[in-house]
Design brief:
Blueprint: E1 3-9, E2 13-20, E3 25-32, H1 37-52, E4 61-65, E5 77-78, H2 81-92, E6 98-102, E7 107-112, E8 118-123, H3 132-141, H4 149-154, H5 167-179, H6 184-205, E9 212-215, H7 222-232, E10 236-237, H8 247-273
Parallel strand pairs: 1-4, 4-5, 6-9, 9-10
Antiparallel strand pairs: 1-2, 2-3, 6-7, 7-8
Helix pairs in contact: 2-8, 3-6, 6-7
Length: 274
């Protein structure tokens, strides 16, 4: 049996997945990234192995991805998060042609070809208003935890517009709405809609086409996916809440399986020639 691991060191969270040759997930783990990238990547990896009942000696290949991929000192190779996300998305939803990834510090849209290779991509501007961090900051400012974002927004009756293109200006709008007595739920939903408008603009810039697959931590909140559906006037794929943050790690582990297959083919060919 071939065992591979995908390690996704993201700006906010680090994820690890252990995958077998049947594409079944044997174990996984997630924890805040922090500042010690090498240490957190190894700790996450070891916990995923423990969850799978395996040891490092059982793993045949490790691929790292994410912003901190270069700091994973036990990897065999690394790939970009765009590549890994494309592979993970098409494993879950084979007809995916457009991927929207909304994380804590980044937002990315990419268009794929029929072989799950990235044809074009766009990233958000360097501003927190275009990422999940803005939603988390808005929630905290109003006295709510990150886990309450979804339930809070779901109770909104009349979302208010948050039009600031910069996190600082957007925060000023939030403060102004609060001072006027606007319900926090309407402010939260307005912030989500603002983020969705930016994400849809990114998708248009890559000339997005269905099927659309949405991934990333912010997609844990159903209100985000519903708002994207409404903006696009189309159906979208969203992995279940336990998987939506692991898609890049899953894609990296899958690429590890394909890399092993290629190495075996090359070895077999060399043996035949000899």
């Amino acid at each position: 049996m071939s065992i591979t691991a995908g390690i996704d060191v993201g700006s906010t969270y680090t994820k690890a997945i252990i995958l077998d040759e049947k594409r079944e997930v044997l174990g996984r783990d997630i924890r805040p990234t922090g500042f010690k990238l090498t240490e957190v990547s190894r700790a996450t990896y070891r916990q995923a192995l423990d969850n799978a009942g395996l040891t490092e000696d059982d793993v045949d290949y490790v691929i790292a991805t994410g912003i901190g991929r270069h700091q994973v000192d036990f990897k065999d190779i690394h790939v970009t998060d765009l590549t890994a996300s494309a592979r993970g998305s098409t494993l879950l939803f084979p007809k995916t042609l457009t991927v929207l990834d909304v994380g804590g510090q980044t937002m990315k849209a990419s268009r794929l070809d029929s072989e799950a290779k990235v044809r074009s991509f766009r990233l958000n501007d360097k501003c927190a208003a275009g990422t999940g961090a803005f939603l988390e900051k808005t929630a905290r400012y109003m006295g709510f935890e990150t886990t309450e974002i979804g339930p809070l927004a779901a109770t909104s009756k009349e979302p208010v517009p948050i039009s600031g293109v910069c996190a600082v200006f957007a925060e000023s709008e939030v403060i102004n709405h609060l001072s006027m007595g606007t319900p926090p739920s309407d402010i939260m939903q307005g912030s989500i809609q603002s983020l969705v408008e930016r994400s849809v603009q990114l998708m248009k810039r890559v000339k997005a086409e269905p099927e659309y697959t949405l991934i990333g931590g912010i997609l844990r909140f159903d209100t985000m996916a519903n708002a994207v559906r409404k903006q696009l006037d189309a159906e979208v794929n969203v992995p279940d809440k336990d998987t939506v943050q692991f898609v890049a790690a899953l894609g990296a582990a899958l690429l590890g399986q394909r890399r092993l297959e290629k190495l075996r083919e090359e070895k077999s060919t060399a043996a035949d020639v000899a």
